[in-house]
Design goal:
alpha+beta, about 230 residues, mRNA Triphosphatase Cet1, Chain A, 6 helices
Length: about 230
């Protein structure tokens, strides 16, 4: 399990190019380190949305579960990763398990998907999954990846964020009649093994970005429930 410090900022979608230019002009020497790609996440919660309520209440120690894949699904080659993310204030860690999409019937019902995932996940993840196994939200966005010249700090830029309630006829496809697009993007800073002095340098400020708590999951549940 990897533990790291994470900090999120938001920006207006129309300022995306300016935010990128500002980032690339930083004295920390950020460079793009991975090709832009589409990120897809199917989130899970309890039937009474316990994870969502934890987030709204500002509980310092909270967690969430999701199934993540990149770009369009090719049943023969696409890999999926089931992740359990645990957050304690600014510290974050993650348990993850990767498998091939061909091991899933990705047009299956919610009930069948849960059975299939239980058969694929390692035993240490099952107590959590058995508690939070209700598909609750689909999220899709475009992500860019950057790293500083010393390879200590990673930054991701997310935009074109779309939310949808899962369709129980096909849990892995956006419901075209219920898609909701956001007008903001998210910049996330991730750093491991940093001293307090080093980390404070990364808590930069700029008129284009706004710091504070931000959860795509909580925002998506709000947006799709209204």
């Amino acid at each position: 399990m990897t533990v790291r410090i994470e900090k999120k900022y938001t920006f207006n979608q129309i300022d995306k190019n300016s935010v990128r230019d500002w980032l690339l002009g930083s004295a920390l020497g950020f460079k793009e380190v991975f090709c832009k790609r589409e990120v897809n996440s199917l989130y899970f919660d309890s039937h009474d949305y316990f994870c969502y309520e934890e987030n709204l209440s500002g509980v310092s120690k909270r967690s969430k579960a999701r199934l993540r894949w990149y770009n369009n699904i090719d049943p023969l080659s696409t890999k999926a990763t089931f992740e359990i993310k645990v957050k304690s204030n600014l510290l974050g860690n993650k348990l993850s398990h990767q498998f091939n999409f061909k091991d899933l019937n990705f047009t299956s019902s919610s009930h069948n998907l849960i059975i299939q995932l239980r058969n694929l996940l390692p035993i240490e993840m099952l107590p959590y999954f058995d508690t939070f196994s209700e598909p609750s939200l689909l999220v899709q966005y475009q992500r860019e990846y950057y790293e500083d010249i010393q390879k200590k700090v990673r930054i991701t830029l997310d935009d074109e964020i779309i939310f949808s309630k899962p369709s129980y006829e096909n849990l892995f496809s956006m419901n075209s009649s219920q898609k909701i697009s956001m007008s903001h993007g998210v910049l996330e800073v991730k750093i491991e093994n940093a001293s307090e002095a080093e980390w404070k340098k990364i808590f930069f400020s700029n008129h284009l970005i706004r710091g504070g708590r931000h959860s795509k999951y909580a925002i998506g549940i709000n947006a799709t429930s209204s």
